[in-house]
Amino acid sequence: MSLIVGEKTVSTDDEGYLMNPDDWSKEVCERLAKSEGIELNDEYWKIITCMRDYFDDHKIAPGTRIVAKFIAEDLGYGKKARNYLFKIFPYGYVKQACKIAGMRRPRSWSTG
To answer: Domain containing 82: what range?
Structure first.
């Protein structure tokens, strides 16, 4: 499958996850978010940037604990961070956050 963003064609799997995370861009992110019914705001962008930075450093998608820790500490949600994460991505971390952030679908994760 593919996603056309501007003049660029980006390959996706059957579920809409990018085949190559390096194809991710702000425009691709916005298109993926729209396909999930999500309108990105500043907090979404901070979370997505956190995820992309982790991916750039480690070459794997960050787990929910890493992102929840960022939300708790950097965004100030404290103990409500995990609930907030699942509130803004109501269909789950893997289903929406990882997809929008341009990650491949994590094969071993069954939650989210």
So the answer is: 2-100
Amino acid at 107: R
Q: In whole angstroms, give the CA distance from residue 79 to residue 68.
A: 9
Tell me the per-residue pLDDT of 5-63, one tens digit each, with 9 for 90 and over: 888 899 999 999 999 999 999 999 999 999 999 999 999 999 999 999 999 999 999 99
> Is there a contact between 92 and 86 (Cβ–Cβ < 8 Å)?
yes
Prediction pTM value: 0.90
Output the six-digit token pair for 105.
């679908």
Provide the number of structural domains found in the chain.
1
Q: For residue 87, tell me if it sits in a domain.
A: yes
User: Residue type at 56?
Assistant: D
Backbone phi and psi for residue 93, each to the nearest 5 degrees, phi listed first: -60, -50
In a domain, 29, yes or no: yes
Whole-angstrom Cα distance, residue 92 to residue 87?
9
Q: Report the alpha-carbon distance of residue 31 to residue 66 in Å, rounded.
A: 25
